[in-house]
Amino acid sequence: MEAQFPEDFRCPISLEIMSDPVILCSGHTFERASIQRWLDAGHRTCPITKLPLPEYPSLIPNHALRSLISNYALVSPPKLHHQPLGEPQALITTLSSPSSTLDSKLDSLDQLIRLSKRDAAFRSKLTDSGVVTAVLRCVGSNDLILQEKALSLLINLSLDDDNKLGLVAEGAIGQIVTALLGGGSSNCRALAATVLTSLAVVDVNKATIGAYPYAIWALVSLLKDGKGREKREAATALYAICLFPDNRRRAVQCGAVPILMRIADSGLDRSVEVLGLLGKCKEGREEMVNFNGCVRVLVRVSKNGSSRGIQYALLTLNSLCCYNEATCLEAIKQGVLEICIGLLDDDNEKIRRNASNLIQVLSGNYSMR
């Protein structure tokens, strides 16, 4: 059976489920290929608001939405295809009651996941019903299946901005951090990181999550010790949280830089995106400059990385070369100037701009030698 995705996952232009969502400077999200075609056709207005855009509009990757869409299909569909759905209030009562059996709670969670996937109004009613407390208790359960389903339900509930604020107000961060640090399954930890990514879409939640004890430390630990999907989701959550400037220093203090560097060197370009943010703070630049092989890692990504990896590798190199002359000279030695010249014709406008900016920095340093 084909998953019924929320309408927010669809591009307003193509009406297809987005695989590479980007935010236009108007604040609306589109599939990258669709909005790029709109802009390439000469349009300089937002397709939704019709308000004018700058001559070269920025397209900001919507990492949180992309992660939610990616994880949506990974949530195991409830095995209820031939069973009628229960009444919502009865399901909520079953989940909330201390006397309910484990099997009945699992069944209720299955049905609530199914209902909340396709109905925004139901998600709102569900959070207003007081069931969130019961769901968070399930997240803290020792039963891994119950924990996993409860986290899946939290992802659904967090799709709406009002719910993101409500979940944080009801103490979701504490239970999610406990799930990240606990002895749960790999899938539970990845889902917990995804919930943090979703909650961090709201700016005030970025600050709240970053200030919560051990939240950033838990994500950094997952980056260090997790498996492939855990690392990807932890990096995505860390990126979303570090869009709030104060959290960059916290991530550096938790030891994120050397871990991100090693992961980037192993091929996970998403970690380079986080480094691009951490390079905007003094503490982050200091850690990167002191990391043996920092320039080599960023050069490798600049040569062989994904489009976003290249974009952020150049951004990070720019920050470091402006900050430290020795790093600038090392970058010149490793051929970064030639790499940037070759990227001036790249299809990605941000890569072209970052390459051009870095050429100016390197050329200025080279001329003073």
TrEMBL record:
PANTHER family: U BOX DOMAIN-CONTAINING, U-BOX DOMAIN-CONTAINING PROTEIN 8. One of its GO terms (molecular function) is ubiquitin protein ligase activity. Transmembrane segments: none annotated. This is RING-type E3 ubiquitin transferase. It catalyses: S-ubiquitinyl-[E2 ubiquitin-conjugating enzyme]-L-cysteine + [acceptor protein]-L-lysine = [E2 ubiquitin-conjugating enzyme]-L-cysteine + N(6)-ubiquitinyl-[acceptor protein]-L-lysine. One of its GO terms (biological process) is protein ubiquitination. Its EC number is 2.3.2.27. Keywords: Repeat, Transferase, Ubl conjugation pathway. It comes from Cannabis sativa. The lineage of its organism: Eukaryota, Viridiplantae, Streptophyta, Embryophyta, Tracheophyta. Pathway: Protein modification; protein ubiquitination. The keyword Transferase applies. Residues 4-79 form the U-box domain. SUPFAM superfamilies: ARM repeat (SSF48371), RING/U-box (SSF57850).
